[in-house]
Design a protein that fits this description.
This protein is α+β, with helices and mostly antiparallel strands and 346 residues long. The protein has 11 helices and 17 strands. Strands 12, 13, 14, 15, 16 and 17 form a 6-stranded antiparallel beta sheet that branches. The chain has a 5-stranded mixed beta sheet with strand order 4-3-2-1-7, with helices on one face. Strands 8-11-9-10 form a 4-stranded antiparallel beta sheet. Strand 5 and strand 6 form a beta hairpin.
């Protein structure tokens, strides 16, 4: 541990490349959700974005008990989970920082953050409590509602206790159409748009394949948008808003990852509404005491009401993902944004 702290407290050298005494960065990807492979693509995107003149960057893929790092010669070697170290060229190496890009467990629900806290390794996301809360959509909605944030009405159904919430209650309380989605999964899988009571039971079964707790959420009509943000000790950076347009029933997995969507940055919304969205985004970041880059999804009703849909604490980072799009639209460079995130921990 003393060795890690000594390395972490050194300022990065101005130039010189790999092996010159820079911070050693782990891009931690994979995970145990249905979006394991999507996470690998985000890791490749991040690897391409990082400033190699400033950082020695490795990709670490974790799945279950298999944790391994991709070495610079193209081979892989196991990670020692006692201290998150590995051996390269016969020498043990410690990381100075972990950039987490796992979509789902254990990187988006606080588990991996707790492990990194225990071994005193700085990381890119928010802390354990924030990650656990934002991962559970139902809990997050109730929490933010108490701060005056507008969210859709919802009901929670737990596996084994489905009979506690009847189809009639869902129809009366939530209304039709509605969404049935995993409450705690961090995945685009298992989400259904339900148009009548007959579709509820199969939708619930589908969602429970991804999570033992599912949420039935009221349908909000309007324009779907998403906005990224990060804050450091010196500044607040709120990215331009992206409008999400899809001919699918909703922004599902195919829309998100298979190109069945039109993404317009900046969004075609009134400047006054865009300003209100940005203020809400900054407010939610502060309420949750977030760290690193987050992305918040909203629905704007035809009347101009702004309702939060979801807070994503490990947003996708492929070249075509929302955050890199918004960074480009802001006239910024991803390598500089990532350097901001890393250096804010030291």
């Amino acid at each position: 541990m003393e060795n890690r702290n000594n390395i972490s407290n050194q300022a990065p050298l101005p130039s010189g490349g790999v092996g010159g005494g820079f911070r050693t960065i782990a891009i931690v990807c994979g995970g145990d959700s249905s979006e394991h492979d999507v996470s690998l693509r985000s890791a490749q995107g991040l690897y391409s974005f990082f400033d190699k003149e400033r950082y020695d960057v490795y990709i670490v893929d974790i799945k279950g008990q298999d944790w391994h790092v991709e070495l610079h010669d193209g081979t892989t070697t196991k990670i020692d989970r006692n201290d998150f170290s590995f051996v390269e060229d016969g020498k043990a190496k410690l990381f100075d920082y972990a950039y987490i890009t796992i979509h789902g467990t254990p990187g988006e629900n606080g588990l991996l953050q707790g492990y990194f806290d225990l071994i005193d390794l700085p990381y890119s996301t928010s802390g354990v409590l924030v990650e656990a809360m934002t991962f559970d959509k139902f809990v997050l909605n109730q929490y933010l509602r108490s701060y005056g944030v507008s969210v859709a009405d919802s009901l929670l159904i737990r596996k084994g206790y489905e009979e506690l919430v009847s189809d009639d209650e869902v129809e009366e309380r939530i209304g039709m159409p509605c969404f049935v989605k995993p409450a705690a999964d961090g995945s685009s899988f298992g989400v259904s748009k339900v148009k009548n009571k007959d579709q509820l039971a199969p939708a619930i079964r589908k969602a429970m394949l991804e999570s033992p707790e599912i949420m039935v959420e009221s349908y909000l009509e309007g324009t779907e948008i998403t906005q990224g943000i990060y804050k450091t000790r010196e500044k607040t950076v709120i990215f331009p808003i992206t409008e999400v347009v899809t001919s699918n029933e909703f922004f599902d997995y195919d829309a998100k990852y298979n190109g069945q969507v039109k993404e317009i940055t900046p969004a075609r919304i009134a400047p006054e509404i865009a300003d209100r969205v940005s203020k809400i985004t900054s407010h939610i970041y502060d309420i949750l005491h977030c760290n690193g880059i987050i992305r918040i999804d909203y629905i704007i009703s035809p009347e101009g009401k702004i309702s939060m849909l979801e807070v994503n604490t490990t947003p996708g980072m492929t070249a075509t993902s929302f955050i890199p799009q918004q960074v480009r639209a802001a006239g910024l460079e991803m390598k500089d944004v990532l350097s901001d995130i890393v250096e804010n921990s030291f």
